[in-house]
Amino acid sequence: MVEGWDADLRGAGAHLSPAGPGRVHVIFNPASGHGRGAGRIPTYLALLKRHLQDFDHSITTSGGDEGRLARAALEAGAETLVAVGGDGTWSQVADQVISWPGAARLAVLPSGTGNDFGRNLGISYADPEDAVRTLAAGRTRRVDIGRVVSPSAADGQRQTPSAYRPRHFLNLVGFGFDIAVIEAAAGARFLKGALLYKVTALLQLFRFPGISGTVTSPTHGTRAGRHLMVTISNGRYFGGGFPIAPDATIEDGLLHACLIRDAGPLRRAALFNRAERGRHVGAPEVEILSDRRFSVRFPEKGDVPRFEIDGDVFVSASHVVDLELLPKTLELVAD
Question: Is the pTM of this model over 0.85?
Answer without folding.
Answer: yes
